[in-house]
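__Protein archive entry__

___
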Amino acid sequence: MSLEPVKTPRVNLRTPDVMAAVQAQVESHYRSEIVDQLRSTGGTLTRRGITIKLAKQFGFCYGVERAIDLAYAAAKVFTHQRLFILGEIIHNPEVNDQIRALGIKNLIGKDKEEDVENLTSEDVVIVPAFGTEVSTFAKIKELGCQIVDTTCGDVMSVWKRVRQNANDDVTSIIHGKASHEETKATASRATQNGRGHYLVVLTLEDTDYVCEYIRKGGDKATFLKKFEGGYSTGFDPDLHLRRVGVANQTTMMRGETEEVQHRIEIAMRDRDGQEKARESFRFFDTICGATQERQDALSDMLKAPVDLLLVVGGYNSSNTSHLAEMGEAKLPTYFIRNASRLESHERIVHYSLHEKREIITDHWLPSEPVIIGITAGASCPNNLIEETILRVFELHGIELAEIKS
């Protein structure tokens, strides 16, 4: 006989006194006076021939701020209960270190400190901004845990679309990284009704392969091998590409997602004809607004003279990686985790998107006068941006007092 889920009363974390204390603590950890001043004065700062230019939009978005606030609030309210989180709250190592310092332990991934199976109804579980898979959420709910759900609203909008696809027997083709927490969570919603299917494509090359199969068919075994780990149980390209809907990981580049959509739509028209394709293909714009704002702001900044670009943030952050991609297409770009990677005037340690590891570049910093652009993804706090700005000036012998003057 199955047990009924334990019903745990919901606790309101967002009371005025709790949130006032949370705001003070969060600001002490992540706020930057220098970044605030730069924002208010146009985003440009010049000292002794060194010019720093900040993109107009960068750093924490509303969804990230909300997730962090709720995690800090949980630590303040549930002082006599064990606190856990389903993986990283966001993709920034410094922020995740702060979350651990609050006594919140990880339940998922290579750094997990406890198993979900060992939870009790007395425990508190935080769902990160990416969301979590249906099966995991159902398990912690069944155990009666107090759930603090920080899932971003933009992510939940995608879930709504893929659930509708599944209900209409439409396969969701998800543009994203199959291993990413958000994509896994979205994919689980595509199969939630027990009959839906999904396929994950990452690149335009992947997309073209799928398009060719849509038009002409092909070897099913080869198809399944190519996309191994990126499709639903029982997925059959001969059956489940008859009706498709394109969805996406919210932090992908809008232009690329639109190109994925465009190419698949053309393939469906080629196979089915214009009229039938209206029924066999669907698409909804579900790119995160904050992601797009940061991409647009960087694009605008790169239209003006800039000698090099520093992109600050976690290396596993999808939206930050896309900013680095945009920069690399235009000018020397260095994707750094934090200011410590600026080792000297001659040497920088930065992440290579192509090699998937940190590499060293010598003679990276030109002589003054030099214009250095700086941006950061939606998961990067302002204090890390400030530290990067200060380090650039420090490498030129410019101290804080002069910067503030």
About this structure: Residues 29 and 383 are 8 Å apart (CA to CA). The chain has 16 helices and 15 strands. The radius of gyration is 23 Å. The mean pLDDT is 93.
